[in-house]
Amino acid sequence: MSMRDLQGWIFDLDGTLTLAQHDFAAIRRELGVPSDSDILTYIAGLPAAEATAMKAELDQIELRLAQEVEAAPGAVELIRYLHQQGRRLGILTRNLRCVAISTLQHLDVLDCFAPEDVLGREEAAPKPHPEGIELLLQRWQLSPAQSVMVGDFHFDLQTGRAAGSNTCLVHPQNQWPELADWHAVDCRNLLALL
Q: Tell me, what is one Gene Ontology molecular-function annotation carried by this entry (predicted)?
């Protein structure tokens, strides 16, 4: 299937539609998470009271970072183009939904997304679990083959693969060619492919 035929477009947010701004090493240090641990997995393994406190701390960090967000090259144009073409658009992020909504508003593309199609870590199991894609496809009444998961990290590609969707890596280097059906250096390059 050609990318032009895809009806459902699911995007990661940070580092895909926005310039990467999360210094995960610094966030781990601020939270006291071991340097080799995934932050969400680490928090999930804590006793309930500690997990709740650390989640609240992480939420504050993410809300602070959302105020400094910048669009990635071509991101706004890509979203506007797909929206005008009548494609279904979703966000699947390991971030908070309210942060994603704030980011999309800041980028001036929130109107391109149905509110229920913006999924954060509390609306679906965090990537690489495929639940978020499955929820969106069910809502859109599309098959996995009619959709693509677009992201800048292997979690995004693994999520797409697990859901049976197509995958597109948006990153300067094609780091995980075995997981990506397509590769674009940035959103501007991806738009040019359409």
A: hydrolase activity
Position 69 pLDDT exceeds 80: yes
The correct answer on CATH 2.60.40.10 for the domain covering 24-66 is: no
C-alpha to C-alpha distance for 57 and 157, rounded to whole angstroms: 28
Average pLDDT over residues 144-168: 97
CA atoms of 107 and 109, how far apart (whole Å): 6
- Is the CA virtual torsion 21, 25, 28, 29 positive or negative? negative
Q: Give CATH 1.10.260.80 domain extents, the chain.
A: 24-66
Count of beta carbons in the 10 Å neighbourhood of residue 24: 13
Task: Please tell me the predicted confidence (pLDDT) of residue 78.
Answer: 98
Q: 23-27, 96-100, 173-177: lowest mean pLDDT where?
A: 23-27
Strand order in the sheet with 8-11: 118-119, 88-92, 8-11, 147-151, 166-170, 182-184
Q: Give me the CATH code for the 3-19+70-193 domain, please.
A: 3.40.50.1000
